[in-house]
Amino acid sequence: MLRILKSLGTPADELRELYLTFILPRLMHASPVWPSSLTSTQQQQLEDVHCAGSSLALPTLITITP
Question: Cα–Cα distance between 26 and 9 in angstroms, integer?
């Protein structure tokens, strides 16, 4: 969804609001109990979704430290 909106020219601040309002809360819901019930593949898939979404919606907040 974010990738499509970004390609259509949606401003970065709107992408950020969409990610923080709709996507991140769904990823974080009940996350403390997930590790015991998810396979490592499922955990990796969740992490991949989070990384992809955050890099699209929050590019200025992502920093690389050596």
Answer: 25
Structural domains counted in the chain: 1
CA–CA distance, 7 with 34 (Å, rounded to integer):
33
Q: What is the pTM of this model?
A: 0.64
Q: Which two tokens stand for residue 3?
A: 């990738």
Domain-embedded: residue 66 = no
Query: Structural domain of residue 15, as residue ranges?
Result: 2-61
Residue type, 61: L
Q: What is the pLDDT of residue 66?
A: 46
Give the mean pLDDT of 22-40.
80
